[in-house]
Amino acid sequence: VRRYATEPSKGGSNTALYAAGAIGLAGAGYYFLSGTRTAQKAEAKIKDAASDLTGQPPKKALTGGDQGWVSLLLEDVEIVNHNTKRFRFKLPEDDQVSGVHVASAILTKYKGAEMEKPVIRPYTPISDEDAKGYMDLLVKKYPNGPMSSHMHEMVPGHRLDIKGPLPKYPWEANKHEHIALVAGGTGITPMWQLARAIFSNPEDKTKVTLVFGNVTEDDMLLRKELAELENTYPQRFRAFYVLDNPPKDWPGAAGYIDKTLLKTVLPEPKADNIKVFVCGPPGMMDSVSGNKKSPKDQGELSGILKELGYTQDQVYKF
Q1: What is the pLDDT of residues 134-174, one digit of tens each?
Q2: Domain for residue 8, yes or no?
Q3: What is the separation of C-alpha 47 from the centre of its chain, rounded to a whole number of angstroms?
Q4: Cβ(130)–Cβ(58) under 8 Å?
Q5: What is the CATH number of the domain that holds 162?
Protein backbone atom coordinates (compact mmCIF):
# COMPACT_ATOMS: atom_id res chain seq x y z
CA VAL A 1 0.00 0.00 0.00
CA ARG A 2 1.41 3.39 -0.97
CA ARG A 3 1.07 6.44 1.22
CA TYR A 4 1.60 9.88 -0.24
CA ALA A 5 2.73 13.06 1.44
CA THR A 6 -0.86 14.29 1.63
CA GLU A 7 -2.29 11.13 3.20
CA PRO A 8 -2.38 10.25 6.90
CA SER A 9 -1.16 6.80 7.86
CA LYS A 10 -3.86 4.11 8.10
CA GLY A 11 -1.57 1.60 9.81
CA GLY A 12 -0.30 -1.75 8.67
CA SER A 13 3.13 -3.39 8.37
CA ASN A 14 5.81 -1.22 6.75
CA THR A 15 3.62 1.85 6.36
CA ALA A 16 2.95 1.97 10.08
CA LEU A 17 6.63 1.67 10.90
CA TYR A 18 7.74 4.48 8.60
CA ALA A 19 4.82 6.76 9.40
CA ALA A 20 5.39 6.32 13.13
CA GLY A 21 9.02 7.31 12.70
CA ALA A 22 8.15 10.48 10.84
CA ILE A 23 5.40 11.48 13.26
CA GLY A 24 7.62 10.81 16.27
CA LEU A 25 10.37 13.01 14.89
CA ALA A 26 8.05 15.81 13.87
CA GLY A 27 6.48 15.92 17.31
CA ALA A 28 9.68 16.33 19.29
CA GLY A 29 9.86 19.74 20.87
CA TYR A 30 13.56 20.27 20.35
CA TYR A 31 13.13 20.35 16.57
CA PHE A 32 12.07 23.98 16.47
CA LEU A 33 14.53 26.57 15.24
CA SER A 34 16.35 28.60 17.82
CA GLY A 35 15.18 32.09 18.58
CA THR A 36 18.52 33.46 17.43
CA ARG A 37 18.18 31.97 13.97
CA THR A 38 14.57 33.19 13.71
CA ALA A 39 15.60 36.67 14.77
CA GLN A 40 18.31 36.71 12.11
CA LYS A 41 15.80 35.78 9.44
CA ALA A 42 13.40 38.48 10.58
CA GLU A 43 16.15 41.10 10.54
CA ALA A 44 17.22 40.02 7.05
CA LYS A 45 13.66 40.34 5.74
CA ILE A 46 13.40 43.89 7.11
CA LYS A 47 16.64 44.85 5.36
CA ASP A 48 15.53 43.23 2.12
CA ALA A 49 12.18 44.99 2.21
CA ALA A 50 13.90 48.35 2.59
CA SER A 51 16.31 47.70 -0.28
CA ASP A 52 13.53 46.38 -2.53
CA LEU A 53 11.94 49.84 -2.49
CA THR A 54 14.58 50.94 -5.01
CA GLY A 55 13.15 48.55 -7.58
CA GLN A 56 16.62 47.37 -8.53
CA PRO A 57 17.55 43.68 -8.57
CA PRO A 58 20.15 42.76 -5.93
CA LYS A 59 23.79 42.67 -6.93
CA LYS A 60 25.38 39.23 -7.18
CA ALA A 61 28.75 38.33 -5.71
CA LEU A 62 29.11 35.25 -7.93
CA THR A 63 28.14 35.72 -11.56
CA GLY A 64 29.54 32.59 -13.23
CA GLY A 65 30.72 32.72 -16.81
CA ASP A 66 34.17 34.25 -17.19
CA GLN A 67 34.28 35.55 -13.63
CA GLY A 68 37.37 34.27 -11.86
CA TRP A 69 37.75 33.02 -8.31
CA VAL A 70 36.37 35.32 -5.62
CA SER A 71 38.18 35.45 -2.28
CA LEU A 72 35.59 35.44 0.52
CA LEU A 73 36.26 36.25 4.16
CA LEU A 74 35.22 33.65 6.75
CA GLU A 75 33.04 35.57 9.19
CA ASP A 76 31.78 32.90 11.57
CA VAL A 77 32.11 29.17 12.30
CA GLU A 78 29.49 27.08 14.11
CA ILE A 79 30.09 23.51 15.33
CA VAL A 80 27.11 21.41 14.23
CA ASN A 81 28.18 17.96 15.43
CA HIS A 82 31.26 15.79 15.92
CA ASN A 83 32.45 16.15 12.31
CA THR A 84 30.43 18.96 10.70
CA LYS A 85 30.64 22.74 10.85
CA ARG A 86 28.63 25.59 9.40
CA PHE A 87 30.81 28.26 7.75
CA ARG A 88 29.51 31.77 7.14
CA PHE A 89 31.39 33.67 4.45
CA LYS A 90 31.03 37.42 4.11
CA LEU A 91 30.24 38.65 0.60
CA PRO A 92 32.33 41.53 -0.81
CA GLU A 93 29.46 43.99 -0.31
CA ASP A 94 26.76 44.02 2.37
CA ASP A 95 23.92 44.51 -0.12
CA GLN A 96 25.01 41.65 -2.40
CA VAL A 97 23.37 38.23 -2.67
CA SER A 98 25.52 35.19 -3.37
CA GLY A 99 24.31 34.71 -6.94
CA VAL A 100 23.51 31.05 -6.25
CA HIS A 101 20.14 29.94 -7.63
CA VAL A 102 17.95 26.84 -7.32
CA ALA A 103 19.33 24.40 -8.06
CA SER A 104 23.03 25.20 -8.26
CA ALA A 105 26.30 24.76 -6.37
CA ILE A 106 29.65 26.53 -5.94
CA LEU A 107 33.28 25.47 -6.21
CA THR A 108 35.90 25.97 -3.50
CA LYS A 109 39.66 26.03 -4.13
CA TYR A 110 42.61 25.54 -1.81
CA LYS A 111 46.33 24.98 -2.44
CA GLY A 112 48.60 24.05 0.44
CA ALA A 113 52.27 25.03 0.56
CA GLU A 114 53.45 21.53 -0.41
CA MET A 115 50.66 20.75 -2.90
CA GLU A 116 51.53 20.58 -6.61
CA LYS A 117 47.99 21.35 -7.68
CA PRO A 118 45.10 23.03 -5.86
CA VAL A 119 42.21 20.91 -4.63
CA ILE A 120 38.78 21.94 -5.90
CA ARG A 121 35.52 20.71 -4.37
CA PRO A 122 31.84 21.55 -4.98
CA TYR A 123 29.40 22.44 -2.20
CA THR A 124 25.76 23.46 -2.10
CA PRO A 125 25.18 26.54 0.07
CA ILE A 126 22.45 26.17 2.70
CA SER A 127 21.68 29.88 3.16
CA ASP A 128 18.76 31.56 1.43
CA GLU A 129 19.52 32.63 -2.12
CA ASP A 130 18.18 36.11 -1.33
CA ALA A 131 20.23 36.49 1.88
CA LYS A 132 22.33 39.65 1.61
CA GLY A 133 25.92 40.02 2.74
CA TYR A 134 26.73 36.36 3.49
CA MET A 135 26.67 32.75 2.28
CA ASP A 136 26.64 29.63 4.48
CA LEU A 137 28.27 26.27 3.75
CA LEU A 138 27.72 23.07 5.72
CA VAL A 139 30.89 20.97 5.58
CA LYS A 140 31.54 17.51 6.97
CA LYS A 141 35.18 16.61 7.67
CA TYR A 142 36.24 13.41 5.92
CA PRO A 143 39.34 11.39 6.82
CA ASN A 144 42.08 12.28 4.34
CA GLY A 145 39.77 14.85 2.73
CA PRO A 146 42.06 17.75 1.80
CA MET A 147 39.37 20.41 1.33
CA SER A 148 37.16 19.48 4.26
CA SER A 149 40.21 19.12 6.54
CA HIS A 150 41.48 22.54 5.46
CA MET A 151 38.13 24.18 6.04
CA HIS A 152 37.77 22.65 9.49
CA GLU A 153 41.08 24.26 10.40
CA MET A 154 39.92 27.68 9.25
CA VAL A 155 38.95 30.37 11.76
CA PRO A 156 37.16 33.69 11.30
CA GLY A 157 39.40 36.08 9.40
CA HIS A 158 40.70 33.42 6.99
CA ARG A 159 39.75 33.51 3.32
CA LEU A 160 38.69 30.91 0.76
CA ASP A 161 38.52 31.10 -3.03
CA ILE A 162 35.00 30.44 -4.32
CA LYS A 163 33.54 30.32 -7.82
CA GLY A 164 30.09 29.78 -9.28
CA PRO A 165 27.27 29.24 -9.54
CA LEU A 166 27.30 25.81 -11.17
CA PRO A 167 23.82 25.16 -12.63
CA LYS A 168 22.26 21.84 -11.67
CA TYR A 169 18.54 21.15 -12.09
CA PRO A 170 16.57 24.18 -13.35
CA TRP A 171 13.70 24.67 -10.93
CA GLU A 172 10.59 26.79 -11.25
CA ALA A 173 7.43 26.87 -9.15
CA ASN A 174 5.07 23.93 -9.74
CA LYS A 175 7.40 22.33 -12.27
CA HIS A 176 6.35 18.96 -10.82
CA GLU A 177 3.25 18.04 -8.86
CA HIS A 178 5.15 15.80 -6.44
CA ILE A 179 8.88 15.34 -5.91
CA ALA A 180 10.82 12.84 -3.81
CA LEU A 181 14.20 13.60 -2.23
CA VAL A 182 16.35 10.57 -1.44
CA ALA A 183 19.43 11.69 0.49
CA GLY A 184 22.29 10.25 2.49
CA GLY A 185 24.62 12.20 4.80
CA THR A 186 25.73 15.56 3.38
CA GLY A 187 23.67 14.78 0.29
CA ILE A 188 20.91 16.58 2.18
CA THR A 189 22.30 20.02 1.23
CA PRO A 190 20.99 20.21 -2.38
CA MET A 191 17.73 18.70 -1.15
CA TRP A 192 17.43 21.42 1.49
CA GLN A 193 18.14 24.08 -1.14
CA LEU A 194 15.29 22.75 -3.26
CA ALA A 195 12.81 22.20 -0.42
CA ARG A 196 13.51 25.60 1.11
CA ALA A 197 12.85 27.31 -2.23
CA ILE A 198 9.56 25.47 -2.66
CA PHE A 199 8.15 26.23 0.77
CA SER A 200 9.33 29.83 0.85
CA ASN A 201 7.37 30.55 -2.32
CA PRO A 202 3.61 30.98 -1.64
CA GLU A 203 2.90 30.29 -5.32
CA ASP A 204 4.63 26.89 -5.29
CA LYS A 205 2.28 24.06 -4.30
CA THR A 206 4.65 21.15 -4.95
CA LYS A 207 4.33 18.15 -2.64
CA VAL A 208 7.62 16.88 -1.21
CA THR A 209 8.56 13.52 0.30
CA LEU A 210 12.03 13.16 1.86
CA VAL A 211 13.88 9.93 2.66
CA PHE A 212 17.05 10.71 4.62
CA GLY A 213 19.59 8.07 5.64
CA ASN A 214 22.45 8.44 8.12
CA VAL A 215 24.77 6.29 10.21
CA THR A 216 23.76 7.62 13.65
CA GLU A 217 21.23 10.09 15.03
CA ASP A 218 24.01 12.61 15.65
CA ASP A 219 24.90 12.55 11.95
CA MET A 220 21.51 13.92 10.87
CA LEU A 221 22.09 17.41 9.44
CA LEU A 222 19.53 20.25 9.13
CA ARG A 223 17.27 18.29 11.45
CA LYS A 224 15.63 21.34 13.04
CA GLU A 225 15.02 23.01 9.70
CA LEU A 226 13.45 19.90 8.20
CA ALA A 227 11.23 19.41 11.25
CA GLU A 228 10.01 22.99 10.95
CA LEU A 229 8.90 22.29 7.39
CA GLU A 230 7.16 19.12 8.52
CA ASN A 231 5.33 20.94 11.30
CA THR A 232 4.40 23.92 9.12
CA TYR A 233 3.33 22.02 5.98
CA PRO A 234 2.07 18.62 7.18
CA GLN A 235 -0.14 18.14 4.11
CA ARG A 236 2.67 18.80 1.63
CA PHE A 237 5.92 17.70 3.29
CA ARG A 238 6.75 14.42 4.98
CA ALA A 239 10.13 13.08 6.00
CA PHE A 240 11.23 9.49 6.67
CA TYR A 241 14.50 8.94 8.51
CA VAL A 242 16.70 5.85 8.41
CA LEU A 243 19.70 5.09 10.65
CA ASP A 244 22.34 2.41 10.19
CA ASN A 245 23.00 2.36 13.95
CA PRO A 246 19.86 3.63 15.69
CA PRO A 247 19.54 4.11 19.46
CA LYS A 248 17.20 1.84 21.41
CA ASP A 249 14.36 4.37 21.45
CA TRP A 250 14.67 5.30 17.75
CA PRO A 251 11.13 5.64 16.27
CA GLY A 252 12.18 5.49 12.62
CA ALA A 253 13.52 2.81 10.31
CA ALA A 254 16.81 0.98 10.89
CA GLY A 255 19.40 -0.21 8.40
CA TYR A 256 19.77 1.17 4.90
CA ILE A 257 17.40 2.92 2.52
CA ASP A 258 15.82 -0.12 0.89
CA LYS A 259 13.31 -1.15 -1.74
CA THR A 260 10.49 -1.71 0.75
CA LEU A 261 10.74 1.81 2.16
CA LEU A 262 10.99 3.54 -1.22
CA LYS A 263 8.10 1.52 -2.65
CA THR A 264 5.98 2.48 0.34
CA VAL A 265 6.59 6.22 0.57
CA LEU A 266 7.65 7.50 -2.86
CA PRO A 267 5.10 8.77 -5.39
CA GLU A 268 3.94 6.09 -7.83
CA PRO A 269 6.17 5.98 -10.95
CA LYS A 270 3.06 5.91 -13.10
CA ALA A 271 1.76 9.13 -11.52
CA ASP A 272 1.72 12.26 -13.63
CA ASN A 273 4.54 14.80 -13.39
CA ILE A 274 6.72 13.44 -10.58
CA LYS A 275 10.48 13.65 -10.09
CA VAL A 276 12.89 11.77 -7.82
CA PHE A 277 16.13 13.50 -6.77
CA VAL A 278 18.99 11.44 -5.35
CA CYS A 279 22.18 12.56 -3.60
CA GLY A 280 24.46 10.73 -1.20
CA PRO A 281 27.64 8.69 -0.81
CA PRO A 282 28.67 6.41 -3.70
CA GLY A 283 27.39 3.26 -2.01
CA MET A 284 23.93 4.70 -1.51
CA MET A 285 23.82 6.11 -5.03
CA ASP A 286 24.84 2.77 -6.49
CA SER A 287 22.08 0.99 -4.57
CA VAL A 288 19.29 3.51 -5.20
CA SER A 289 19.86 4.92 -8.68
CA GLY A 290 23.37 4.26 -9.93
CA ASN A 291 26.10 6.90 -9.80
CA LYS A 292 26.64 9.75 -12.23
CA LYS A 293 29.39 9.28 -14.80
CA SER A 294 30.45 12.93 -14.53
CA PRO A 295 28.98 16.29 -13.45
CA LYS A 296 27.40 16.61 -16.90
CA ASP A 297 26.54 12.94 -17.49
CA GLN A 298 23.77 11.43 -15.38
CA GLY A 299 24.67 7.91 -16.43
CA GLU A 300 22.17 5.09 -16.81
CA LEU A 301 19.43 4.64 -14.23
CA SER A 302 19.88 1.44 -12.23
CA GLY A 303 19.35 0.10 -8.73
CA ILE A 304 16.15 0.21 -6.69
CA LEU A 305 14.49 3.03 -8.62
CA LYS A 306 14.81 1.17 -11.91
CA GLU A 307 13.50 -2.01 -10.29
CA LEU A 308 10.46 -0.07 -9.04
CA GLY A 309 9.64 1.13 -12.56
CA TYR A 310 10.94 4.70 -12.58
CA THR A 311 12.31 5.97 -15.88
CA GLN A 312 15.52 7.82 -16.67
CA ASP A 313 13.57 11.07 -17.14
CA GLN A 314 11.92 10.75 -13.73
CA VAL A 315 15.21 10.69 -11.79
CA TYR A 316 17.87 13.36 -11.30
CA LYS A 317 21.20 12.66 -9.56
CA PHE A 318 22.80 15.64 -7.83
Answers
A1: 999 999 999 989 999 999 999 999 999 999 999 999 999 99
A2: no
A3: 26
A4: yes
A5: 2.40.30.10
